[in-house]
Amino acid sequence: MYVAVKGGERAIDNAHAWLAEERRGDPGVAELGIAQIREQLALAVARVMAEGSLYDPDLAALAIKQARGDLIEAVFLIRAYRTTLPRFGAARPVDTGAMACDRRISATFKDLPGGQILGPTFDYTHRLLDFALAADGMAPPDAPQSEASAGAMAHVTEFLAREGLIQPEAQGSATPRDLTREPLDFPADRPLRLQALARGDEGFVLSMAYSTQRGYGRTHPFVGELRIGTVAVEMDIPELGFAIELGEVVVTECETVNQFTGSRTEPPQFTRGYGLVFGQSERKAISMALVDRALRWEELGEDNVGAPAQDTEFVLYHADNVQATGFLEHIKLPHYVDFQSELELIRRLRAEAIAGQAREAAE
Predict the structure, then answer these.
(1) At 150, is the secondary structure helix, strand, or coil?
(2) Torsion-angle region of residue 339: left (phi > 0), alpha (psi -120 to 50) or beta?
(3) pLDDT digit string (tens) for 228-264?
(4) Distance (Å, rounded) from C-alpha 57 to C-alpha 64?
(5) How far apart are CA 282 and CA 277, in angstroms?
(6) pTM to 2 decimals?
(7) pLDDT band at residue 173, thresholds of 50, 70 and 90?
(8) Which DSSP symbol is given to 134?
(9) Rounded mean pLDDT of 312-328?
(10) Handedness of CA 214, 217, 223, 229 (dihedral sign)
(11) Rounded to the nearest 10 degrees, what angle do helices 57-66 and 42-52 cross at?
(12) Closest by CA position to 188, among listed 287, 296, 289, 263
């Protein structure tokens, strides 16, 4: 139970003022601009957009600045703002096959139509601090100019599908439930699970994915394809009778290829795990794909080995960092009455125990 504290409102106002000072930092240091955060902390911006379920790099950068770099707090701010926005309709599913790729790699096939595109990645860098970046005003070394791929590039899994080596994806006809407008409930079908994973905490989803690789789940994944790039967002306009392009978004998509021993009705073949998130966020997309595949054990007729990543309710109930943060941090708020009742209980139990010991000693 929460109780009012005398003088609390004034103390809270002072705390907010102090927070504003701390957020600004030393006035002698130039203030970070929204454009600087958007352009130079792009991966943090991408995470906030993905977990906040809102694609807007400028607003995500603003949230990061307001939250002093606390990305979960920034996600909270973005979700709160998102609830105030009107909804005019729904866009068509984006066509990732027509993506203008900045990065496209496959761990299963070396020679791909369109080639492997390494793109901007930390994969091949030495994990050494670059102190040149600390030198204000130092110009970066000239780098070769690169361009995104042009034209549609088939997904790697399509090559396997031509030979019937991979399970075809079920084509759903019903409109998926919207997790941003409806509370999570069970049973959760795959579209709902994918929504929850896409906006789930990156660290949690990463841990669940890692656990499947450590033996807590029978997935044995290969990265069939990982691609990062720009896709068009289109919306059907009933008055016009056709779709128009609203704009473009940057997304990361991952398809994993996993073993499947088959069932009574299906021969042995590969199955898929899938991940799709806003911005450049390949760690999250890969993790999402691994967990997605682990959660498919029941529909594929596999055994549940009791792995955490196979427990749909455990994964989805605990993946949301905003909900987890609220539940965790509420214990900082006043619980004076609750604690007093616990304190009185402990005192009574101690008194009874001491009295009992005294009686035993007397006997």
Answers:
(1) coil
(2) alpha
(3) 999 999 988 888 888 888 899 999 999 998 877 666 6
(4) 10
(5) 8
(6) 0.84
(7) low
(8) G
(9) 89
(10) negative
(11) 100
(12) 296
| Run of H or E including 103 | strand 100-105
Task: State yes or no: cis peptide before 187, omega within 30 of 0.
Answer: yes
* Residue 255 three-state SS: strand
* 282 C-beta neighbours (distance < 10 Å), count: 25
- Token pair belonging to 273: 């795990």
Residue 316 has pLDDT above 90, yes or no: yes
Q: What is d(CA 273, CA 296) in angstroms, rounded to the nearest whole number?
A: 9
CB 153 within 8 A of CB 228: no
Which ranges constitute the DSSP H helices of 146-246? 156-162, 190-198, 202-213
Name the nearest CA neighbour of 47 among 248, 304, 288, 335. 288
Contact 319, 196 (CB under 8 A): yes
Strand order in the sheet with 271-278: 100-105, 221-237, 242-258, 271-278
Rounded Cα distance, 79 and 62, in Å: 13
Radius of gyration of the chain (CA): 26
- Residues 262 and 21: their CA atoms lie apart, in Å, by 61
31, 260 Cβ separation under 8 angstroms: no
Compute φ and ψ for 54, nearest 5 degrees: -150, 120
Give Cβ neighbours of residue 31 (< 8 Å, ≥ 6 apart). 24
3-state percent helix, strand, coil for the chain, nearest multiple of 5: 40, 15, 45
Are residues 261 and 137 in contact, defined by beta-carbon separation less than 8 angstroms? no
Give Cβ neighbours of residue 304 (< 8 Å, ≥ 6 apart).
297, 298, 310
Q: Is the pLDDT reported for residue 297 higher than 70?
A: yes
